[in-house]
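Appendix B. One record, verbatim.
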Amino acid sequence: MKIYMVGGAVRDKLLGRPVNDRDWVVVGATPEQMLEGGYLPVGRDFPVFLHPTTREEYALARTERKSGQGYRGFAVHTAPDVTLEEDLSRRDLTINAIAEDTHPSRGSGLFDPYHGVRDIEARVLRHVTDAFREDPVRILRVARFAARFTDFTVAPETMQLMREMVAHGEVDHLVPERVWQELARGLMEARPSRMFEVLRECGALAVLLPEVARLWGVPQRAEYHPEVDTGVHLMMVLDMSARLGAPLTVRFACLAHDLGKGTTPADVLPRHIEHEQRSAELLVDVAERLRVPVDCRETADVVAREHGHIHRSGELSAAALMRLLERCDAIRKPARFADVLLACECDARGRLHFEETPYPQRPRLLAVLTAAQSVVTRDIAAQAASRGLTGPQVGGLIHQERVRAVAQWLQEEKQVTEPGQK
């Protein structure tokens, strides 16, 4: 039995990046031997075990043979005679097909049959063997790695292989949960735009997210969007969300906020009248198709519908501001409202020449929300009850008091900005 550290841990170690999780492959062992050694079985489709002390994953060396469509269509073979090279051959990219022998008696040594070290040095994402084409999830993984390793490029032959996979319909068989898992991880990488650029280049984006793919080539009004192209703007917004350290809910909202611009009638371009409502409607289909988590879809819905009003909130009266807060359900869900505002800031700053421009709407609307929250609703409800008022009548009184509180805040804001005003 020989044990090797494999995959991302070896890759990240060679790149000088933090190694958070270590995976191991075991050559020359049987499941029975692993159990006798105290390892805990956890694999459903093939033998994977947890180390009795470290709880790190140890997988028996295995080979895979295509037996059906999609990423589940594989027949897995494990046996003591499966070699380390055979196990590494089934991996997606050469940079992930490097093993390290860490046994203290033999000394550390790399096993690199597919020249992954060379590709790390050259900053290239390259498939290991033609077996890459058997698993369409690998297209998503390549795109995600492009978003993580921002100075790497996709090898031309790998890009061609991915195009062929898309053309042969392999991407059509991906299950929604796996697509969302990879997209979500890619959105959280250092430069998420690269994930979508790779997916678009190989044709997979048009299959997985046609609502996003059709944004390229759609013009916008140059006075608001110097970058003009809606797809280019979307990529800038996503990268701004990464720059600002936004959570997944915000990054998905950024992805979906302008979907409606892809359905704007050609005769009204470059204007996009009522694109917000169309974006919200398209979001419903995307969220259902990809099984998007509720918190992500709810935040994205508010951003899609309200980002235009939030951008122009400096022009709104106290009553209009209160209606905006109510439409965003900001009183009940202030944390989500804060995420909505962060997404709007990403949208505003994700434009050519606006990357360093402050976005005062965000702190201002948070202050407006604080003013509305200062109203003690319990006292209003008690006074209303003493007058025999119930239900909507009480809600109306609370709304009025909140409008007054916001109006008072606006007056104080005006006095601060115009000190000479009495």
